C-alpha cells in the first residue's frame, strides 16, 4: 500500500488538533498548509474514504467519519 503524501499527513495532523476559537483553524490552514479552507476541506473529505488515511490516523479518521455520517443522516 502506498503511503500518504506529506500534504495529506499534514491535513490529518492539523485536523487532529484542537483550536481555541473561531477563525484560528482557518488561519492555521492558510499559514501552515498554504491552502484555502475550501480546498483543505475537499482534501480532508477525500481522505476520510482513503484506507491509507485510516491506517495512518485511525482515531481522527473514525471520529470525522462519524461526524460526516451523522450530518448526512440529518439531511
In short:
By secondary structure, this protein is mainly alpha-helical. It is 73% helix and 0% strand.
List the helices and strands and how they pair.
Elements: H1 6-15, H2 24-33, H3 37-48, H4 51-56, H5 58-74
Describe this structure in words.
The longest helix is centred in the C-terminal third of the chain and has 17 residues, at 58-74. The chain has helices spanning 6-15, 24-33, 37-48, 51-56, 58-74. It has five helices and no strands.
Order of helices and strands: HHHHH
How is the main sheet built?
none
Kindly estimate the percentage of residues that lie in beta strands according to DSSP.
under 5%
What is the tally of helical segments?
A: 5
What do the pLDDT scores average to?
94
Termini, distance in Å? 35 Å
Task: Provide keyphrases for this structure.
mainly alpha, 73% helix, globular
Amino acid at each position: 500500500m502506498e503511503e500518504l503524501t506529506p500534504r495529506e499527513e499534514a491535513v490529518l495532523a492539523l485536523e487532529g488538533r484542537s483550536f481555541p476559537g473561531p477563525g484560528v483553524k482557518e488561519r492555521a490552514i492558510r499559514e501552515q498548509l498554504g491552502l484555502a479552507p475550501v480546498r483543505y476541506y475537499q482534501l480532508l473529505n477525500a481522505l476520510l474514504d482513503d484506507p491509507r488515511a485510516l491506517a495512518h490516523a485511525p482515531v481522527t479518521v473514525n471520529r470525522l467519519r462519524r461526524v460526516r455520517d451523522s450530518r448526512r443522516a440529518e439531511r
